[in-house]
């Protein structure tokens, strides 16, 4: 069998992130203030984020330098390996060439530290020694905890209470890196106390955890807040994935016809495709297909509206123009916790509106079927989120088998599933089902989208 | 910061395993038949192992070719990365240079598939489509399950019942790769039924699980048995670790003064040091210190006798000359499940007897302290077994700080701790204690060692 792994030299870790805002055919719509509905300025965000990240949020510079201190941490796991899935190709009997960039070798096990490390660095540089955040199942919280350990920053994570109780191991991971993790709703914020007064048994939600983390950061001089997806600067930091993949494929002498990734807030997928979509925009590679894979149970891109909405459930964040199912939309309890978000990164939503990205929804049973198939041939047991991408890849590879075309497919294997084995257990035991959200309920949730 | 990762090219995956039996100053003592107490021949082992592995067990050829089919699977994660722990060095303020070979990126998360893949291959080649084995916490069972998926071999794992119930995720991993995993004691073997008749609530033990797996393999023409440590052929397969490490250090222009690894059965550590101990034997590097790190609670090398004993608790296996605490020794329930074995690989025991390897025992609280320190500086959360090696490394690095010597330390980071977070949870919650086995109880257990 021929080579399966392509790993760049450590010296080839990118020195700059790629900023898509420099190359958009049409600029991103402005972010609006939740009260005035007018475009916000940097000072509106200053209580929550360090100024350097606020600048990156709106920058139109094509390349933004990666600080040497951030690259020093990236060295612990970057450059990540680009694999050729030769054993899967053979099992599928497809003429397609399947490549994947594996981000699961970072200490927290996913792409998330590409941005948590950068965010922690800029906070530290501006004198911030304390950051709050929220986490659902714990992927993001553990990535920020790791970054906090790297720079000596105190990290406080509001973890949705039901996950805190049922999935203790991500929490222990955070604590091992020195972070404080508390169940949300908590007694430590007004948002938490109000909820507990209403319902002492409340098991929490991501929207509520966001409210608690934001409230604490906004109320304390010494504390900022950090978000793990959706925002422009988060996607910017993730472009190390795509820049490395592009460089490796260049060295191999190949280029993807199809790029695939799973999307919740959108950061892992954007990280991979943004450096390639540049070539589609400038006409060098007009025919690349860029496919977002999302769950049928939370079909933000395939059924949502492209409009202004809040980022959180309670409606306190600035208004972002994005694909949304309505900020009150509560997805069913699928196992891919990282994809259960009502909105989508404004950059991805905008590119889809421009016809540069497409989307497909996938059923839960299909994603686990693909994940098990992948594990049996390629070895890696992927996160259920990532299995959405794998299912879409298998479908494209099957199309190639039918048509006889030897297309080159590239996808982001965004994380391993070592902390998600209960999901595989339920699948293998036949306990899972598909969820397709009734259109009427989606229509209801979308009625809550604010009218401007 | 300077380079931290050294990864060989995929073409540099070793083409041959290194066989220490070619270079031993004194040959290994023979293996004896449990009944006759006479040296056994290949035919005695034929019901359990394919002939090629039996030949490897006694071979004195210096290099044994790695079949291309095995290297093709190794490619999925090999060569593994050799890291320089620059951030840990800085935190310890030591002049020592600390390197580690990280085996946790294999699909099952440890060094174990280096041999499971080879064993599965030789079985398949000799027409065997079914293998039984036992597993405690699940590291070995999952490695063999992965290997079974690679070659289309049915794997049946007898998993100690208490682990089967309390630690379901390794089991789900095995099932995801297609293996069958059943709790031991089971109704499927005489050994299991006898035990259940005596004690229906028996939660099992590794010794009993071995008995069940061996009984089934011995009783079925179509089935062989597989062992994950201790035996010579297992250590042989693990030498890919040391061969790669040696090559990488050669490219860096460095050579270890001290080599450290944790030991249970001994395979991960032997895999690392055997290609180096060769240089100590032939006088090229007479001064390398080779240190085995074992738990105080199961002090096989530091307190055991070097004598003939059985490999299993019930006394049915051939007699091996090895360090042993007595085959009836039951270690306390420490979290490093992989180090709870009464014996030690005959090769390591023999090398220690020859004065080529030394050993030290480490307390449970010290290993977790070192593991947390390592995680906070190097990112990787290691398995509790591996934390024994890390604790020994920290101690040697501290000695260098005192003496001012810039020694080069190399250790095997044999696996990640993603399935051991409950151990870290207990440590962080202050629930753990040190265990030092009373000498009187060790003496009692050693009385059971057979007299020849």
What's a quick, concise take on this entry?
Chain A has 18 helices and 15 strands. Chain A has helices at 42-45, 51-58, 68-74, 86-92, 113-125, 139-151, 161-166, 168-176, 190-198, 206-219, 232-252, 267-281, 300-303, 346-353, 364-378, 384-403, 421-428, 439-447, and strands at 5-6, 16-18, 63-65, 82-84, 97-102, 130-135, 154-160, 180-184, 224-225, 258-262, 289-295, 305-310, 319-324, 358-362, 408-413. Chain A is globular, with a radius of gyration of 21 Å.
Can you give keywords for this protein?
homodimer, 4-stranded parallel beta sheet, alpha/beta, Rossmann fold
Bin the helical content of chain A. Answer: 40-55%
Main interface: chain pair and counts:
A-B, 42 and 43 residues
CATH architectural label of the domain at 5-10 and 68-109 and 237-446 in chain A = 3-Layer(aba) Sandwich
Low-confidence stretches of chain A: none
Global morphology of chain A: globular
Largest sheet of chain A at a glance? 7 strands, mixed
What structural class is derived from the secondary structure elements of chain A? Answer: alpha/beta
How much strand of chain A? 15-25%
Mean pLDDT of chain A: 95
First-residue to last-residue Cα separation of chain A: 59 Å
């Amino acid at each position: 069998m021929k080579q399966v792994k392509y790993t760049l030299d450590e010296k080839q870790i990118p020195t700059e992130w790629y900023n898509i805002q420099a190359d958009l055919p049409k600029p991103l719509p402005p972010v609006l203030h939740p009260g005035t509905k007018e475009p916000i300025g940097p000072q509106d965000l200053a209580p929550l984020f360090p100024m350097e990240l606020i600048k990156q949020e709106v920058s139109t510079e094509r390349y933004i330098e990666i600080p040497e201190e951030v690259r020093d941490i990236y060295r612990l796991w970057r450059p990540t390996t680009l694999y050729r899935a030769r054993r899967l190709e053979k099992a599928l009997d497809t003429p397609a060439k399947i490549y994947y960039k594996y981000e699961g070798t970072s200490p927290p096990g996913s792409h998330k530290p590409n941005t948590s490390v950068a965010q922690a660095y800029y906070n530290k540089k501006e004198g911030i020694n304390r950051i709050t955040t929220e986490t659902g199942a714990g992927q993001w919280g553990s990535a920020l905890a790791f970054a906090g350990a790297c720079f000596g920053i105190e990290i406080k994570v509001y973890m949705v209470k039901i996950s805190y109780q049922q999935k203790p191991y991500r929490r222990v991971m955070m604590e091992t890196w020195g972070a404080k993790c508390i169940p949300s709703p908590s007694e430590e914020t007004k948002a938490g106390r109000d909820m507990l007064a209403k319902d002492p048994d409340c098991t929490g939600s991501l929207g509520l955890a966001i409210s608690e983390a934001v409230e604490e950061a906004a109320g304390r001089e010494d504390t900022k807040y950090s978000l793990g997806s959706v925002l422009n600067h988060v996607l910017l930091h993730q472009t190390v994935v795509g820049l490395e993949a592009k460089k490796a494929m260049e060295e191999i002498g190949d280029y993807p016809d199809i790029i695939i990734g799973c999307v919740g807030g959108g950061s892992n997928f954007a990280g991979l495709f943004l450096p390639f979509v540049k070539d589609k925009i400038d006409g060098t590679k007009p025919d690349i297909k860029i496919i977002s894979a999302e769950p049928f149970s939370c079909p933000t891109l395939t059924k949502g509206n492209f409009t202004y909405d809040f980022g959180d459930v309670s409606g306190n964040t600035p208004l972002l123009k994005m694909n949304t199912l309505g900020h009150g939309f509560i997805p069913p309890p699928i196992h891919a916790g990282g994809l259960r978000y009502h909105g989508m990164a404004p950059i991805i939503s905008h590119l889809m509106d421009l016809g540069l990205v497409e989307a497909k929804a996938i059923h839960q049973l299909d994603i686990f079927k693909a994940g098990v198939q992948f594990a049996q041939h390629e070895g890696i047991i992927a996160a259920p989120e990532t299995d959405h991408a794998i299912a879409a890849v298998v479908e494209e590879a099957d199309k190639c088998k039918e048509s006889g075309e030897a297309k080159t497919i590239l996808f982001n294997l965004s994380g391993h599933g070592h902390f998600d084995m209960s999901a595989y257990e339920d699948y293998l035991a036949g306990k899972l089902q598909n969820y397709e959200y009734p259109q009427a309920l989606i229509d209801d949730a979308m009625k809550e989208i604010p009218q401007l």
